[in-house]
Amino acid sequence: MPLILQRLLHPHLATGAPHRVPAVPLTADAPPAAAPPRLHPAWVVVFISAWLATACNVPLWREVAQLPGQGSLRGWGFAVAFAFIVAAGNAALLSLLAWRWTLKPAATMLVVMSAFGAYFMLAYGVAIDASMLTNVLQTDMHEAGDLLNGRMLGTVLALAVPPLWWLLRRPVQRLSALRHIVHNGLLLAGAIAVIVVCLLLVFQDFASTMRNHTKLRYLINPLNSVYALGNIATKPLRMDTHKLLPIGRDAQLGASYAGQAKPPLLVLVLGETGRSGNFGINGYARDTTPLLSARTDLVSARNAWSCGTSTAASVPCMFSHLGRTGYEARAANFESLIDVLHHAGLAVLWVDNQSGCKGVCDRVGEIITSQQKDVATDAALCPGGECLDRVMLQDLDTRIAALPAEQRQRGTVVVLHQMGSHGPAYYKRSAPENKKFGPECTSTSLQECDRQQVVNAYDNSIVETDQFLDSVLKWLAARDSKSQTAMIYVADHGESLGENNLYLHGLPYSIAPDVQKHVPWITWLSPAMQSRTQLATGCLQHDLAERRITHDNYFHSVLGLMDVKTGAYSVGLDIFAGCRQVAGVGKAAG
To answer: How many Å apart are CA 269 and CA 521, to the nearest integer?
Structure first.
């Protein structure tokens, strides 16, 4: 062996040191495992973005697969380009958050958000926008509990655990501040470049698809949720949310109050998740409203439409003077119908068996049944802590008597906000004696049930509403000797029951199916109230049966019925005004 090689291999020979073979221990520990190499932050962004664009966007790609022409080569090209656009959009977002202390938390948040979003879009066919997130943020614990199930847990774990496990086990390179800025800037520029190139390649198809299939934009996960959260967060920049503008401060009571022998008593039943087409009184094939249908003194408007597709959107809108278009475009919040009635000097009471009045009764106050210990413990009406709507009639006389006497002598308006047919646990919304249709779906994962079982459970909740409304009418009739009574029942929005694989409600109004917007509207006037208002039930039945009305009419119709004079009132939006004029009474002031 050449000398130089010997010295390289055996350096001890170069010093003349004796050759010793190193001792080998009898039991040697395994060498420590090599630490995984540190990843550049850009690779974390790329991997997470790809996972979000693929696994977490199954609802989007399922919808894309159903587009016309998707089986062709051009269709596949569009789908691939769309996928790159979504992935690049995620990467652009993450590039803004890819800093030393924020990358992993931001990626984790987006993955978890996407997992939950994907579940709800898959399970119920919902789309995510600002209105949907607002509804989620205002959901109470009982409603949230109804949505929890094993399928949700499995879906969220399957979509969130793999990328998060990988992310938590991979160390990330630490870059200097300058290198972070440069690399994040390049990553953002690269993501934008990918988006631009892909758009140019399929621009005609992309523009046409987004225009004709607007639901797709609400399915791009998690960018849909990020955009919606941004919309909610920036709302104070678009409107003054701290200012409440007055409305109806000029309100006065009309001539009908002069020398009245008995004050008016109006009950406004605010329905929840009511589908007009599933009410027997409106022509539904099933007799879901036997008690209401047996009466001849009701006015059912079969062509009524909601202001929104969720409680959070509809309730403030229907109690507003602005109407749907004006409400959505408002630059500030206004007082509500409840405030105007109070300004006029009437007694007002809000009883809530749902998730609150959404701000419309804040200046008057509300009684929430779930917070009344003596009520919530009623085993018959509140099984499991969730009360049937009939519980709102308990102690109602006592609650009204607690209102100021001077106001009660003028007149009283009571609002009863139902739990109604709130899903997905429809089977909880009816008492055993009202379960007329079976078998019911008893799962909150509605897609696990046969659709007819879902419909059965929902229809039973309408039977329960029928009994509740009949109980309200009997309660009012028992007070005819002291008051001139009336009732108006209107639901806040409708519901999807599996049509086109859609469940629940809350889709953006522009793309929501009619079943989420077509609502029941039922009016009852006692003979004394008909005489007081010069409104004949027969005239209203003829005039309103098929006439298109909307929540835009609600504010003005209630004021007209209660003979409240204010500049905020519009006779053209009062659904009762036509019959009042037929009866020989001139147009109301305002």
So the answer is: 10
- Alpha helical stretches, state H, 305-424: 311-318, 323-328, 337-343, 373-376, 396-401, 405-410
Tokens for 177, please give them.
Answer: 């501040």
Q: At 29, is the pLDDT very low, low, confident or very high (cuts 50, 70, 90)?
A: low
CB atoms within 10 A of CB 33: 6
* Residues 350-368 pLDDT 10s: 999 988 899 999 999 889 8
Q: Report how far residue 401's alpha carbon sits from residue 348's, in angstroms, rounded to the nearest whole number.
A: 11
Burial code (b: 16+ CB inside 10 Å, e: under 16) for 461-492 equals: bbbbbbbbbbebbeebeeeeeebbbbbbbbbb
Phi first, then psi, for residue 251 (nearest 5°) are -60, 135
pTM exceeds 0.90 for this model = no
Euclidean distance between CA atoms 93 and 107, whole angstroms: 10
Higher pLDDT, 557 or 381: 557
| Residue where the block lists tokens 């147009």 | 587
* Cβ–Cβ < 8 Å for 338, 415: yes
Nearest one of 418, 248, 261, 420 to 341, comparing CA atoms: 248
CB atoms within 10 A of CB 142: 18
CA angle (85, 88, 93) in 5-degree steps:
125
With residue 456 as reference, give the H or E element that holds it.
helix 451-477
What is d(CA 19, CA 10) in angstroms, rounded to the nearest whole number? 9
CA atoms within 13 A on the CB side of 299: 25
**Which residue type, as a one-letter code, is found at position 199?**
L
Give the DSSP H/E element, type plus range, for residue 168. Answer: helix 150-169
| Per-residue pLDDT at 582 exceeds 60 | no
Q: What average pLDDT does this structure show over 506-533?
A: 96
pLDDT value, residue 138:
75
pLDDT digits (tens, 9 = 90+) for 260-282: 999 999 999 999 999 999 999 99
Q: Is 66 in a helix, a strand, or coil? A: coil
**At which residue do the structure tokens 């009419």 appear?**
553
